[in-house]
Amino acid sequence: MYQRIRNLREDKDLTQTQMAEYLKCSQRIYSNYERGDVDIPTAILIKLADFHHTSTDYLLNRTNHKEPYPVG
What we know:
The chain is mainly α. It is built from five helices and no strands.
């Protein structure tokens, strides 16, 4: 899971600091998320999925389909 989050960030040429600002956390906390040093809170996981236009299942390695689920 953590590698996917990092890859998605790097695909958009964003820094950890930029992602941390979006998530309203410190760069250090965000770095801990990417390394897997701390569990990612559900609310943050949802924000990451929304930001990257994917599903939480993709972030959690439960599927290889990047597309988000349809709303409704």
